[in-house]
Amino acid sequence: MKFSFRDLGALPEFRSVFTNFSWLFIIKVAGYVFPLLTIPYLAKILGAEGLGKIAVAASVNVWILTICNWGFLYSGIRDLSRCKTDEKQVSSIFSTILSCRLTLMTLSFLGLMIVVALVPSFWEERLLFFFSFLMIPGHILFPEWFFQAMEEMKYVTIFNFIVKLLFTVAVFVFIQQKEDYVLQPLLLSLGFLLVGGVSHLYIVKRWNVKFQWISLKCAFREIKSNVDIFLSVFMHNLYDSFSQIVLGYYNGFSHCGVYDAGNKFYDICTQFFNLLSMAFYPVLSRKIDIHKYYLAVALGLASVVSLLLFIFAPTIIHWFYTEEFSEAVTVLRILSLSLPFAIVINIYGTNYLLIVGQEKKLRSIIVFVSLVGFALSFPLAICYKAIGVAILLLFVRFVMAVALYVAYRRTPIETNRI
Q1: Does residue 64 contact residue 113 with C-beta atoms inside 8 Å?
Q2: Using alpha carbons only, how large is the chain's radius of gyration in Å?
Q3: Cα 99 from chain centroid?
Q4: pLDDT tens digits for the chain (418 residues)?
Q5: Cβ atoms within 10 A of the Cβ of 85, count?
Q6: What is the residue range of 360's domain?
Q7: What pTM value is reported for the model?
Q8: How many structural domains does the chain have?
Q9: Integer Cα distance of 183 and 160 in angstroms
Q10: CB atoms within 10 A of CB 264
């Protein structure tokens, strides 16, 4: 395949991708650059243990948010991008997804309360887990998937930017001592709730969306229809966020703080590529032929970013954190090596197999590899602590990337059209 940026720029679809990506990028800049300003301050005030407690609560939240999303973010973008001019269909899709996510959120909250009550170390931090959970309704009320499908992010981006700025200022104002760590997720949750409320008002006014609550029977039918996509997304948690929970449970919250310090900057880089993925996804859903351009851009950039992250890991960690977090340098370097594999997973998984209707094939690969990662998370996280978790993620991402590439090569030619 011969790739040319001139060819890419000439594509009419590229303008849509570039516009969508630009606004998504500003949202993520607000979501990550502003919090970066608070890292040195929080590391000094809260220490590794305080940041570790926040990281464990956030890892539990990842499980809950994945359940509440249930694959609707991908199917919603795919379906809505194909009928976004049909007002009745837009309202139907929006109502169905919102109803299902709120139903799943209610069930998840009940599950969280049971888990927190049964685990002594979690019960001691019950206020932290509750404040962290408040981010979930905020995420649901802020339907970023809807704006991506409609390819209009401008106004939400501006408001989101302002809220993140206010959150950053609030951290310096309200968090003054070690015991204030519970305020960090509370302040963040309030920001999400504010963005979500205004976003919903904008959707109703801009697209004349009429929300209608669907019956539980219809909700569970829709949930059942998205099981394959849900499993493809959810299974990543078996080795990713779960390994962090194991790390904190067996080795203490401070080791979670060290791992989170290294992972935070890796995560910022992956979020950039997630933006690229989300910008291409609606267009790829309509025209899979441009997949080769997405492949060239994403993989090329990932290789460069991975190298830079590996080289500058010591500078990054020492600039933002205290000496207590020095082991995070090794964590970040190991994770940086996994970045190209993570991008390959996205290229051939979400942005190819899922789009061409190969959900079951994608699910099978992810489930099998994730179960292997789940089994390895116990010995690696318990024995080798933060570095062990980083090694686990590098291994699992490599194996999954290879498996998905093989599946892509074996996908019949006739499935390459939608």
Answers
A1: no
A2: 21
A3: 21
A4: 454 545 555 555 556 666 666 666 666 666 667 777 888 899 999 999 999 999 999 889 988 998 998 888 778 887 887 788 788 899 999 999 999 999 999 999 999 999 999 988 889 999 999 999 999 998 888 887 888 788 776 766 776 777 778 788 888 999 999 989 999 999 988 888 888 888 888 888 889 888 888 888 888 888 888 887 788 778 877 788 888 889 988 988 899 999 999 998 998 888 788 777 877 777 787 777 777 888 888 899 999 999 999 999 999 999 999 889 999 999 999 999 999 999 999 888 888 887 887 888 888 898 899 999 999 999 999 999 999 999 999 999 999 999 999 999 888 644 444 4
A5: 7
A6: 5-416
A7: 0.72
A8: 1
A9: 20
A10: 21
- Tell me which residue has tokens 């449970």: 249
Show the tokens assigned to 412: 């019949």
Distances (CA, A) of 112 to 73, 88, 249, 283, 374: 22, 36, 16, 37, 20
**Residue labelled with tokens 């001019």:** 85
Query: 385: left (phi > 0), else alpha (psi -120 to 50), else beta?
Result: left
Count other Cβ atoms within 10 Å, centred on residue 250: 13
What type of residue sits at position 285?
S
What dihedral angle (degrees, nearest 10) is formed by the CA atoms of 39, 66, 78, 204? Answer: -80
